[in-house]
Structures are given as structure tokens and as C-alpha cells.
Amino acid sequence: MKLEVKIQLLKFFSAVFNSLFLALGLSVAGCAVWILFGKGNFLTVLSSVELTTVAFGLLIIGGVVVSVSVVGCIGADGEHRFLLLTYLGFLIILVLGQLFVTLLLLISRNKIEQSLDAAVDQIILQYGGSSSQDALMDNVQHYGKCCGRTGPADWLKNSYIQSLNLTRPDVLPCSCFSSYRRSFNLSWCSELLNYTEPLYGRGNSSYDQGCRQTLSVWLQENALTILGMDVSLVLIQVLQFVVMVYLYRAVGRKASLKRSNRLIDPDHAHLDHAPAEDPDYGEQNDASPDPNGGYIHTAYHHDNQNHNRVYMEPAQGYS
Fold first, then answer.
1. What is the pLDDT of residue 45?
2. Smallest Cα–Cα separation from 86: which of 235, 94, 238?
3. Is the link from the previous residue into 291 a cis peptide, with omega within 30 of 0?
4. pLDDT confidence of 265, banded at 50, 70, 90?
5. Who is most buried in 78, 199, 234, 261, counting CB within 10 A?
6. Closest by Cα among 142, 138, 150, 127 to 212
7. Taking the model in full, what pTM does it have?
8. Cβ pair 101, 57 in contact under 8 A
9. Distance of CA 220 to the CA centre of its chain
């Protein structure tokens, strides 16, 4: 395969892998932003140091991936060996960083799950206002068809329910019921007639199952999503590393050939102008007619050392 064709093919594959690399990098950065600043998910209320470290690690990796992709595109398109070498170095650093984040996520999975349980307990304790955490808990219970973290009895720990001196979970959030009708837009409902309007809403068929299993499955799915993106990034980086190594070598060979073509030995440059009739470019005689009827022979001798023709005295010729 010709060198130029090989370089163009390597550029094409580099552009394809860089596009996938950039898309995955943006996805990873988006996940990190969602974990750190997103609304409507329990990850934003967790106080886990490990999860925060993972989120910031993903954010840094996503930003570096975007920057490195730009460097790789410029280096491949312009055939800049320095940029290609820089790109290869950043790929190695990125792989190491992703392996660290992945291992931290796997090792800290149990701690993150414990932090999630503690966050749910804290929401249950303070439930009853109009905060976003209340709406988050209502969504989990409504769509997960569950109540409390381990069961409806968890709501007896709520500060408002404790003020009622209840021994049974007769008053629950309306989201704990399969069907309900709120009273005065309040969040509390009950199945008992003496707890109905106007103080509380009316609820039917409360859920008996806790939300811990639902939250655990949700957490595992998000962790697998992050791990899947990390593994995909590593695979793309390995392929891109191989392509860039070949491209780096091909560009170096092309530059070497260009330099060798420009380097011509000045001691042999005159040989291109040597007379065709004399391959040795040695001694050469010219003959011209003599007015007296003979020929005058003019002898030239080629000085092989100084590459000049040396004039010699004319000799008389006879017809």
C-alpha cells in the first residue's frame, strides 16, 4: 500500500474514533453534572464522599476527553507529530483516570447504598413541607408503588406524625396509596373515616412494600450506565491509541522521505550536465578546419578533481 493512501486511511479511522470518543466524553460529563447539580434524583441529596469524588472525576474526565479529541483531530489532519505524541500521552493518562474512577465506584458501592438509605430516612423525618425532596419521595412512592424505605411503619418517625402520638401508620403521605383525593392540597391521607376531610385527604389501598428495593435497583442501573460508558471509553481509547501510533509512524516516515529527497550531494550535482556522448566525461578533443588546408585540433582535458575543463595548446593537423 502506498504511504499516502495509508496515511489517508489512518486519518479516516482516527476521525471516526475521535467522533465516538467526543460523544462518549460529553455523555460522561453530562452524567457528572446530573449527579452533582441535577434536580429530581436522590444522588443530589446524598452526602457520600465517594459518590462526590466519582462525580468530580467523571466531570474532569469528560472535559479532558473533549479537549484531547480536539488536539487529536488537529494533529491528525495537519500531520503534526508533536500533537499526535501529546494526544497519545493524554490517552494513557485518561485510561488510568477512568480505571481509578471505575474501581472507586465498584469498591464504594455498599457505602453509597448506605448513604442513600440515610438520605431517605432524613427525607422521611422532615417530610411535610413543600420542598423538592418531598416531591422526590412522592415520585418514588407513587411510581415504585411502595411506601417508606422498609415499609409504612417508617413514617412513624416523621416529626409531624410523632406530634399526633400515633402508634400505627394510620396517616401516610397520599403517595403511599394506589388512589387518593387530597384535602386542601395537603400531602397527608388516611383510610380511616375519623381522619378524613377536612383535615386529611382520603386514600385507598396503601402500599405495604418499602421502597428500598426500588431505590437499590435504581442505583444499580445508574451505576451500570456509568460503568458502561467508562468501559466504552476505554475500548475506544485503545483502538484510537493503535491508530494514532501507526499514523505517527507513517507521518514520520513521510517526513523522512521528504528530507532525503531534498538532500542532494553537491559533489555530484554537476554529473547531470555531463556530455551524453562521453560517459566518463574525461578528455575531449574538438577539431576545427585550418585555413591552410589542414585541421587545428584543440584539446580539452577534464580535471576530475576540480570538475573543470582545462584548455590545452592547439595542435596542427594535416590533410
1. 63
2. 94
3. no
4. very low
5. 234
6. 150
7. 0.62
8. yes
9. 23
Task: List, as own/partner pairs, every contact residues 177-183 make where C-beta atoms lie below 8 angstroms and the sequence separation is at least 24, other chains included.
Answer: 177/203, 177/204, 177/205, 177/206, 177/207, 178/145, 178/204, 178/205, 178/206, 178/207, 179/203, 179/204, 179/205, 180/204
Q: What is the DSSP string of 76-101?
A: HHHT-HHHHHHHHHHHHHHHHHHHHH
Distance between CA atoms of residues 207 and 205, nearest Å: 7
Q: What is the pLDDT of residue 82?
A: 87
Count other C-beta atoms under 10 Å from residue 95's C-beta. 15
* Cell matching residue 20: 465516538
The SS3 call for residue 173 is: strand
161 with 188: CB under 8 angstroms?
Answer: no
What is the helix (H) or strand (E) element at residue 32, kind and residue range?
A: helix 3-37
Three cell numbers, residue 232: 466504552
Helix (H, G, I), strand (E, B) or coil at 284: strand
Judge whether 215 and 42 are in contact, CB under 8 Å. yes
Mutual orientation of helices 3-37 and 49-78 as an angle, nearest 10°? Answer: 160
Tens of pLDDT, residue by residue over 10-44, are: 888 888 888 888 888 888 888 888 777 766 666 66
